[in-house]
Prior knowledge:
By secondary structure, the protein is of the alpha+beta class. The protein is built from six helices and three strands. Strands 1-2-3 form a three-stranded antiparallel sheet, with helices on one face. The protein is globular, with a radius of gyration of 14 Å.
Amino acid sequence: MSDLMKDPLILRQIIMDHYEYPRNHHLTEDEHYHKAHMASESCIDDITVMAKIEDNIVKDVCFDGVACTISTASTSIMTELLIGKTVEEAEAIVKEYYKMIELLPFDEEVLQEAIAFHQVGKQANRIKCATIGFKAIEECIKEHKHE
């Protein structure tokens, strides 16, 4: 376990920074984006994630909606992790993130700031919050692959 993962203050700061100043927090009218809407039945989370995938590269990811701290921060971090990656790299990042949430061994280097959520799997009521954006990007990728 890295020193970063051992410092709850730094992890909290990462989460709060992405909640207060979410990256890529907007939607677009561009018809070349895939779009997935996700809502939680147990929380306020109701977000839309959009992804532009061209030539097998995730060119852009953005999101908007109403969401709790965990959902907003995890989705913000996800957008930064995936932009510029190939579809296969993006899928691998999502897979590592789910492994982390399921409390399985995972690659910290691949997840970068997303490791701030490594304790979420111990809080069942927060798992949906921490994965809603990732589930949405999976839908966008699936839609892209079916084109």
